[in-house]
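Why do we care about 3D structure at all? Because function follows from shape, and shape follows, mostly, from sequence. That is the central idea of this module. The next example makes it concrete: a single protein chain, its amino acid sequence, and then its structure expressed as tokens.
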Amino acid sequence: MTKIIVDNVYENTLETYYRSEDDTMPYVYGNTMRVKEFRGSSRSSVLWTTNAAMEAWNATRRTYGSPIPFRYAFKRIWEGGHGRQSQHYAGVSFDVGQSLSQSQRNRIWNVAYDLGVWSYVEPQYMTPTWVHFDKRYGPPACSAGYPVVRSGSKGIYVLVLQDALNALGFSTRTLDGIFGANTRSALISFQRNNGLVADGVCGCQTWTRLVNEAVGIGRTSSVIDP
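And the structure:
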């Protein structure tokens, strides 16, 4: 069984589900996305996303009216495979349509763009053989990427933060998506070790240094699986 953490962005709560690989993802209707499809090549025992991302998928799939195959959705940051502050590490990003024709991908892109349910639909010239859309949220700390997180924050970006810190040996003692005292302490230690302002707030400079060190380093002995 796989543990799936869903950030309910409307109620600001974190929900936990347990599903087998062939089960439908939480909040997904019509069996259009199974756990193993969302997982992709990730080997993690825990996955995370938001209910808003799943609902955006529902609307897109329903409007398109046919299966939308995809190869890349979730990855943990130390598994890598994507950019530095990729929304794939937050579990809200999809690269789809790789096995379809160009005309089919064009139609998917138009559906995703016209619906307005995604935060970002990548321009087609940037993804000539697939379609990328994601349901990121919060103003980014840098020009693009992840929002500022601090004590009291919760959700997918706190999960990314905790996962990166743990992989680098700065233990948050848990992977729960809640920015508490242990996460703040681990973050301050990381900031001090990297010559950053040790304020316990993960803003642009801290995110940049953190992801540069954590992306794609592989599973380390300090990685936590809840």
